[in-house]
Here is the input.
Amino acid sequence: MNENVTESHPSGASWVLVGVAWVLVGVPLLWGIFITFKKAALLFR
Amino acid sequence: MAGLLDRERIVAGPGFNRWLVPPAALAIHLSIGMAYGFSVFWLPLSKAIGITAPVGCAADASLLSPLFTTVCDWKISQLGWMYSLFFICLGSSAAIFGGWLERVGPRKAGVAAAFCWGGGFFLSALGIRTHQLWLMLLGSGIIGGCGLGLGYISPVSTLIKWFPDRRGMATGMAIMGFGGGALIGSPMADLLMKHFATPASVGVYETFLTMGSIYFVAMLCGAFGYRVPPTDWKPAGWQPKVTANAMVTNRHVHVREAWRTPQFWFLWGVLCLNVSAGIGVIGMASPMIQEVFGGKLIGVPGVLADLTTEQKAQVATIGAAFAALLSFFNIMGRFLWASASDFIGRKRTYLIFFLLGILLYSSAPGAGKSGSVALFAAIFCVILTMYGGGFATIPAYLADMFGTQFVGAIHGRLLTAWSTAGILGPVLINYIREYQISHGVPNAQAYNTTMYILAGLLGVGLICNLAVRPVAERYFMSESELAAVRGAK
Here is the structure.
């Protein structure tokens, strides 16, 4: 590749892939945060 | 197979979406982040033979016998060696293999990390099955620890190159995953152990096999998701700032030279002291809130020692809830502070960590004395955001000071500061506390001096940060040296 190559605009399909990738890592992370909050809620009873 | 992992094979083509790289990095960091959650295994493993209660070892057993015994249970303190091995191997492997990572690219390093971390789980499973502690320590502690180091640094350089406009945010996203790994891994391990437990087994062996498989696949997916940008790639419409900010260089320092600069060692001190203070707080947060507030946490009068066994159990549950809350703020701080550093600058971000840190660490004893649980908890939540933020902002700080060409390798070497802090922090806290209690200081007050000493550590960190100045001209690579390095890759 040459110097100063700039980002060509990603296709619509690539944004679908981005969405899928983020869901795959985001759902477990949100589940973990939910469990943590459930535990932490005891502090505020 | 070798070709599939080569750097040349993963140079992104036109139209590649750079937002695919952070989730790939997160897949790896969320997997290795389980290192923080290993304590979930200690209690079941401490009764792996006795099942319902631990089987004690003979009083005359030798020092090394726990490593090989198959007739009595391991103690939690023996299993705790795993954490020390994690910290030591993480820093050492990141320092040793950082240069190799820059040469071969992130995919090969990510795959190696998957084999080490996943393979470490499998070897540990064998150690649990045969009740051989040495095999467990070798598997997860040493081999897995090397996987931690490799996996931790594998996306850093790549993310910084993909997001030159938001270096802090990009690395913050990945390093947030390392903090979040235990949030997923600990409850998952708990569910799996309950599922696999039988009258003859505590279910840990099967849990290790299952989790090792999950992590191995997730990390491979992450590694194969990595793409590196073409040389000198820039986001559309973005131009590096031409304003004379000497604290952000557009040139590059070779990893061989970086550690000879005073800046490297000042930043080493910055990370080590920020982490030492933070680790100290994490370790004592749960017992501290219980001992400082005692019965007040459950609405009854009296200090902890005056409570009934049932009340103490309730207070302990509140302590665990507090630790869970802190872990959330730890991961949030990683993303938020690192992202904020893109706007306020890295040096100023650490200035805030140290100044605000000194203020908060020094205020904690007063908050405890005032009896306000909410104020006390709020102070520790903010402290934990800055502990996480310290980890997540350092790669961007390094890229600003030393350039992006070798930032992965330089970051790897800097992580020895984390290993040092992993030993220094807990040792310091435990010894100070034991010393005070042995000299008649009440348990609840023994934390006060510790907090002031931790504030002192932050004071030294503040001086290190203030001493960071732009790197001297002689350390930067010439254009021909840079071209030679890039040609060699």
Observations:
- The radius of gyration of chain A is 19 Å.
- Chain A is about 65% helix and 0% strand.
- The mean pLDDT of chain A is 84.
- Residues 12-44 of chain A form one domain.
